[in-house]
Design a protein that fits this description.
The structure holds two protein chains of two kinds. Chain A is built from twelve helices and 14 strands.
Chain lengths: 345, 321
């Protein structure tokens, strides 16, 4: 088994709001192996982004904190480091790219300056060398005439180009772990595919590990080795990409997969939705956090929170349905993954 | 850039012309002309009419305007009705005095407000922030003349530390340290008023920027917190403040009438009030036009600085300032 580069153990992160602690993630555990891509999927408000901010410890600046549990990176406990120590890791060994590339870049600095900054910061390059390397990085992420682009400002670039610049910034110091928070959500579909391809290509070249946060099961199917399904701050199901797509077990995962619009859908009724909304983190229901929206909710679901039930070698789900028969999944709908990674239900 | 400047200056000429027509009409529409001011109880109505004719005040207003405009274009600001003193002789010294007063107050305000507002944005609702808030509300709420009188009664009359009013002690005209002592109280009054706004603007502008995604990107890069604030955030936060500088430029010449009155400062504000009382049209028009020029120039400076700080603004492409 490959070395674990990131381990998150029983980690809760949250915010103080009006002297009340709001847990955005609730004792979540997962790990990422070297060179692997882990996808965290879930709808908005499920705690995916908070997880990434907690790993980076940027959550401290957003008025939040890690409440319990720990985060280990290469065996070092990140959750115990102070911000000075974190700064030498951020952008250096762990890098992050964000959802909206246009607003993630500072409008008053050229893209070259913004890439060079990381290199000057972590590798003590001279301004001139850093700029040269920045131009090489731009070329590496597929930006044509990088010498010209480096001198331009973010508003002179398209969204897809900006995301390439953001990726170049993240890759500047050759991080071991890249956290990508919805990197393609703000982009056109065609550009989305290009950016995902680029990330995978760069991963092959550098051997870095990726944590990719997305609400798009299609994206997850395309790039993930492992998938963690989150809902309302908790992990619902975890497994290898093959297991999750061939034997989706948790009713939430099943709902997410069914919600992918298929080519057959002609009317609005054909579009499957999970009824209801994700609960606010201060109004979580008792028992299983998904039970109010679950089509299979039983008595026990309202009373008690389920632990994980092992469903296979590398597959587990937090759902009472699997208490008795934890080797088969009674709910699996007919889901097929095509050769291009497309999903049909 | 050059083309932009030319276009803006041409626009300014039109604006200034319209302002002059408007204020000329307005001043003449105000009840009570200069002739009524001259009418001492001993002067007959006929004598008043003769005087008005001499001064050209019996002409139709458009004709008066054209005459005045013609003089302005040939560089002649006119003279006062009373005593026939050239307007420039009265105006320029007061302009200089007002610029000294307002310039000192403005610079002091910016020096205090911007660093302090930025500091407060990083320590929201801390002691320093609360203090600044208190000062802001006080500054907004307290009438300048009242605060001026309070300062006078305490620091000059009771403690006798600072001069009560005027610009210089009699016989010490031109003495810099004497001027400095005279500046302290009126500058305090004016700065408090301006500080109120700038502190809030600097703080809120910075707060807004600190919440932007690119600040998060900078932190994710491992940039030190003080560099996040002073390199990544500050330049963005200054963009809206620059508009404020430009728009505030005109108060350098017009904003201090009450304070000048309280401290008997020989500036433009005081002059304007005096001249309005005696209906000295030519002085009033000169002051108004000067104010308008400052407004126009202030806006132009704001736009140019805007383009310097914000690469997204391009002046040459027209209409995008």
């Amino acid at each position: 088994m490959a070395r674990k580069i990131l381990e998150v153990n029983e980690m809760s992160a949250g915010f103080f709001v009006n002297k009340e602690i709001l847990k955005a993630t609730d004792r979540i555990s997962f790990s990422v192996e070297e060179g692997q891509t882990l996808c965290i999927v879930g709808e908005s408000g499920s705690g995916k982004s908070v997880t990434s901010l907690a790993v980076m410890r940027i959550i401290d600046y957003a008025g939040g904190m890690i409440l319990e549990g720990d985060i280990k990176f290469n065996g070092e406990v990140l959750s115990e480091k102070d911000q000075d120590e974190m700064r030498s890791i951020r952008g250096n060994q762990i890098a992050m790219i964000f959802q909206d590339p246009m607003s993630s870049l500072n409008p008053v600095f050229t893209v070259g300056e913004q890439i060079a900054e990381s290199l000057r910061l972590h590798q003590r390059k001279s301004p001139k060398d850093a700029m040269k390397m920045a131009i090489d990085l731009l070329r590496e992420v597929g930006i044509p005439s990088p010498e010209v682009r480096a001198r331009q400002y973010p508003h002179e670039l398209s969204g897809g180009m900006c995301q390439r610049v953001v990726i170049a910034i993240a890759l500047a110091c050759r991080p071991e772990l890249l956290i990508a928070d919805e990197p393609t959500t703000a982009l056109d579909v065609t550009v989305q595919a290009q950016i995902l391809d680029l990330l995978q290509q760069l991963q092959r070249e550098t051997g870095m590990s990726i944590v990719l946060i997305t609400h798009d099961m299609g994206v997850a199917a395309e790039v993930a080795d492992r998938i963690v399904v989150m809902y309302a701050g908790g992990i619902m199901e975890e497994g290898s990409v093959e297991e999750i797509f061939s034997k989706p077990s948790h009713p939430y995962t099943v709902g997410l997969l069914k919600s992918i619009p298929g080519f057959e859908a002609k009317t609005e009724e054909d579009l499957y939705t999970i009824k209801g909304n994700i609960p606010r983190i201060n109004q979580l229901p008792g028992g299983c956090r998904f039970h109010p929206r679950c089509p299979h909710a039983m008595d026990i679901c309202r009373r008690e929170e389920p632990g994980f039930f092992q469903l296979g070698n590398d597959h587990k789900a937090a759902c009472w349905l699997f208490e008795e028969h934890s080797d088969e999944s009674p709910l699996s709908p007919r889901i097929n993954i095509g050769s291009q990674g497309e999903v049909t239900v | 850039m050059g083309e932009y400047l030319v276009r803006r200056i041409l626009q300014s000429v039109v604006v200034l012309f319209l302002i002059s027509v408007f204020t000329f009409g307005l001043i003449h529409a105000a009840p009570g002309g200069p002739t009524q001011i001259f009418l001492s109880p001993g002067l007959s109505v006929e004598a008043g009419k003769i005087k008005a004719h001499e001064l050209g005040l019996d002409q139709p207003i458009p004709v008066q305007y054209l005459q005045w405009m013609g003089n302005i274009l040939s560089g002649d600001l006119g003279s006062t009705f009373k005593n026939n003193i050239p307007v420039g002789d009265i105006l320029w010294p007061t302009v200089k005095n007002t610029l000294i007063l307002m310039g000192a107050a403005w610079i002091l305000t910016l020096i205090i407000a911007i660093p302090w507002g930025i500091y407060n944005s990083t320590k929201e609702y801390g002691l320093s922030d609360q203090t600044a808030s208190f000062i802001s509300y006080t500054g907004f709420a307290m009438p300048a003349f009242w605060f001026g009188i309070i300062l006078q009664s305490y620091f000059s009359l009771k403690l006798d530390w600072l001069p009560l009013s005027d610009m210089y002690t009699m016989g010490k005209e031109g003495n810099i340290s004497d001027l400095f002592m005279h500046l302290i109280l009126p500058v305090s009054v004016l700065s408090l008023g301006m500080l109120a706004g700038y502190l809030k603007y600097a703080r809120s502008s910075m707060l807004e920027v600190l919440e932007q995604d690119y600040i998060r990107t900078a932190r994710a890069k491992g940039v030190k917190e003080n560099k996040v604030v002073f390199r990544h955030a500050l330049r963005n936060a200054l963009i809206p403040l620059i508009t404020l500088f430009g728009l505030d430029l005109p108060i350098l010449v017009g904003g201090a009438a009450l304070t000048e009155a309280v401290f008997n400062w020989p500036g433009m504000g005081r002059l304007f009030v005096e001249m309005a009382n005696s209906r000295e049209y030519s002085v009033l028009m000169a002051i108004t036009l000067l104010g308008a020029v400052f407004v126009v120039v202030g806006n132009l400076i704001a736009d140019i600085l805007y383009a310097v700080v914000d690469p997204r603004v391009q002046l040459s492409k027209g209409g995008k300032s």
